[in-house]
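Quick check before the chapter quiz. The format below is the same one you will see on the exam, so make sure you can read both the input and the output lines.
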Amino acid sequence: MDNSKREALGDELYEALSQQKTLTPFTEREADITIDDAYFISLRMVSRRVDAGETIIGKKIGVTSKVVQDMLGVHQPDFGFLTNKMEYANGADIPVAGNLIQPRAEAEIGFRLKKDLIGPGVTEQDVLDATECIMPCFEIVDSRIKDWKIKIEDTVADNASCGVFVLGDRQADPRDHDLPNLKVTVKKNGKFLSEGMGSAVQGNPLTAVAWLANTLGKYDIPFKAGEVILSGSLVPLEDVKAGDKMEMELEGIGSASCQFV
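Here is the expected output.
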């Protein structure tokens, strides 16, 4: 796929985001689309957001757990960029109308970095050494692809189906915790919804973050000190709408919550 086509598809995604509409999957329209094409399409979409005044503040990995892969029919991780416009305070009211199209909530472990990392060759120990703290996190994924009918190329092109995210107020030193055995419990509208373990994301959240660093390193994209890295959902995705409240507790660390209005 030539660059002009990639840019046109990236512009199409940006317009879908801006106008709150969905698109026919690119994999149905562009038979030869590759993951490399998808990544450059996403860069175009993100560059449009930056040109409009947003700032990149982190990266994310998604579709890391088997339960999420099975839900979406996508059997390898995706990757994307976080901007300041995507972040909401813990406990925030998050508008749906004019802001999100077909949102789904997922509970994750967020990482904040204290030094740069760039792949290839990043190990789990490198991630641990570069991490300032971990935090409970709700990521609200959203898709500009109609009815979530995505393949890996569709979600990578769509900036890993990024929507918005919420970080909990409590922070912890990852060296004080057994990350694969960290347990998360999720409630929806005050009732138990799901639970999961850190091991749901590639066996260890550190493994997921290292994978992301190395994957982005192939494109000369670094992790930077101060950035937030979202490591993937520990639980099944949950559809949300105006009126819903989501709460999560990351055992031994803290909680995060948000309401949709």
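If your answer matched, good. The CA atoms of residues 122 and 187 lie 35 Å apart.
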